Amino acid sequence: MIVSQESRGDNRAMETPKHEIRRATDADEDREIALTPARFAASYRTHVLPLYRYFYQHTGNAADAEDLTATTISKALASLRSYAERGTLAAWLFGIARHTLHDYQRRRCTTVALAETDASVIDRLPLPEQQVMQKEQRDDLYTHIRALPAHQREALTLRYFGTLPIAEIALVLDRSEGAVKLLIHRALTTLRAQYRQEAQQ
């Protein structure tokens, strides 16, 4: 049987590229991981530290950050069936984290200062000069980030403390990737200007 070149061309056009199949398979596996508690438990651990850093940057308190991280994981386990069929497990978890943080902030009217974090422990330890300097730098960075506009602060925190890529931050914040990049750029520009101003004083 002779197959025309036109027919062969049509068939090739209908074929799915291998890289598209691979991406679809990866996405399916990611959703499958989150659909069963056992598979979720085996994979969520890679996101625990970024979640903790995200909460710590927002609260400035290690104990609260640990509690909020645990609460986020518990909420995720309780709502596996609602896992969105788009994005990634990390984006889904950070979406839950943001709601958890907002609930925490509504309950807590006063802002916790980073200087109070683990103060009792720090006071009992003879810290080397380098560690003291690092703590001062962390305090300074925390203060500057807290002063940023809310949207810039959130995008910056998700990127550098939550370690999410731009595409996933866009999903979490429900914004375009271009908008997310602009928020982060403006936040970094503001921070650099503040540090330059301090250096000149």
Description:
The structure is a single chain. The chain has 201 residues and is an all-alpha fold. It has a domain at 18-112: Rna Polymerase Sigma Factor, Chain: A. It contains 11 helices and no strands. The chain has helices at residues 5-14, 18-35, 37-43, 48-59, 62-78, 89-107, 119-124, 129-146, 150-160, 166-173, 177-200. The longest helix is centred in the last third of the chain and has 24 residues, at 177-200. It is globular, with a radius of gyration of 22 Å. Mean pLDDT is 74; it is low at 1-34 and 110-128.
Q: Which quaternary structure do these chains form?
A: single chain
Beta-strand residue percentage: under 5%
CATH first level of the domain at 18-112: which class?
Mainly Alpha
The DSSP helix count reads 11
- Secondary-structure-based class equals mainly alpha
Question: What is the gyration radius calculated from CA atoms?
Answer: 22 Å
**β-strand number:** 0
The main pleated sheet reads as:
none
Q: Report the CATH topology name of the domain at 18-112.
A: Rna Polymerase Sigma Factor, Chain: A
Work out the helicity level. Answer: over 70%
Low-confidence stretches: 1-34, 110-128
Shape: globular
On the 0 to 100 scale, the average pLDDT is: 74
Distance between the termini: 85 Å
Q: Tell me the CATH superfamily of the domain at 18-112.
A: RNA polymerase sigma factor, region 2, helix turn helix motif
CATH hierarchy: architecture of the domain at 18-112: Orthogonal Bundle
List the secondary-structure elements in sequence, H or E: HHHHHHHHHHH
